Amino acid sequence: MSEQRALLILHGKQALNESVRAAVEAKREKGWELAVRLTWEAGDAQRLVGEALEAGYTRIIAGGGDGTLRDIAEALAQQPKKASLVLLPLGTANDFSRAAGIPLEPADALELLDTPPSDIDLGEVGGQIFLNMATGGFGSQVTANTSEDLKKVLGGAAYLFTGLSRFSELHAAYGELQGPDFHWRGELLALGIGNGRQAGGGHVLCPQALVDDGMLDISILPAPQELVGTLKNLLSDGFGIDNMFVRTRLPWVEIKVAEGLYINLDGEPLEGDNMRFEARPAALQVHLPEGSPLLSGKPSVNHQG
Questions:
Q1: Which residues are annotated as a binding site?
Q2: Distances in whole angstroms, Cα of residue 290 to Cα of each of 14, 87, 265
Q3: In terms of DSSP H, where are the helices of 215-287?
Q4: 106 and 17 part of one domain
Q5: What is the CATH number of the domain that holds 252?
Q6: Catalytic residue (one of 33, 254, 268, 278)
Q7: Which domain holds residue 152?
């Protein structure tokens, strides 16, 4: 069996993407055997990963946005070390890929098929896996309320536009976080529990996060007294008031949330008022660029979208 063999699981919305088609053909001309499968409805990504592993594929390409990447990563993590993952970022935000330094052009991204994979961590909460980040507070509500049509027109800027237009509706929420030698509680505006560094279309919440340190980066933005003015400034500056954050790095953290604290997992809403987030060290093999800022010992690079 050829080692230059991979399966691309492509989000159905990208079926007519000419850049992807050209990139696949270019790799085939270089000797790669690339098969393509499309997702259509919930559960397809997991099913297609299972079929790929049964067929002996040892490299799987995830073509889509952060949600698609998460679904495929979760399916692969359930059968560890059977196949490695190549990310083909095709979403609006592409937060994990941007932070990792993965090229956004399909042809360049597929060149990572020829690089060795790295063992990376995943986050887990309530049996669900996340590749990038769990977020809470007003930023999560903005992400959830950003329309698909607006994202098509404005791209990643749609999140900022939605936040600016809705900031008067948003408010602080109460949360309590506890982990090894760490305890914090109070009113907060934003919360990031990161394996990756940024969320919501380029907002860097966990600027020092690494994917191979066995830890989760925790970033809490406490709510100041002058709430509305601060919200407007934060959204305008792209979360620019960095010195206001409370930050720590933990192998696990438990969160108690009150009404009004919205949590999402790589962009998907998460329900529950008591949650335990844990790092799963070296849970997945991913082809990252040489010198990726998400790997330990590498320089920190800001890839805001």
A1: 39, 65-71, 92, 210, 213
A2: 27, 14, 27
A3: 227-237
A4: yes
A5: 2.60.200.40
A6: 268
A7: 128-281
Asked whether residue 286 is assigned to any structural domain, the reply reads no
Q: Which two tokens stand for residue 118?
A: 């790295």
Q: Which residues are part of a known binding site for Mg(2+)?
A: 210, 213
Max Cα distance, the chain (Å): 64
Is 296 part of a structural domain of the chain? no
- Rounded Cα gap, residues 175 and 205, in angstroms: 17
In a domain, 288, yes or no: no
Q: Is 64 among the domain residues?
A: yes
- For 75-133, how does the pLDDT look when each residue is reduced to its tens digit (9 = 90+)? 999 998 899 999 999 988 899 999 999 999 999 999 999 999 999 999 999 999 999 99
Which alpha helices (H) appear in 55-203, and where do they start and end?
66-77, 95-100, 106-110, 138-145, 148-154, 157-166
Instruction: Tell me the pLDDT of the chain averaged across its residues.
Output: 83
Total tally of structural domains belonging to the chain: 2
Respond yes or no: is residue 74 known to be catalytic: no
* Residues annotated in a binding site for ATP: 39, 65-71, 92
Residues 6+ apart with CB under 8 A from 154: 161
| Domain co-membership, 138 together with 116 | no
Q: What is the pLDDT of residues 213-253, one digit of tens each?
A: 999 999 998 876 544 455 555 555 554 456 678 999 999 99
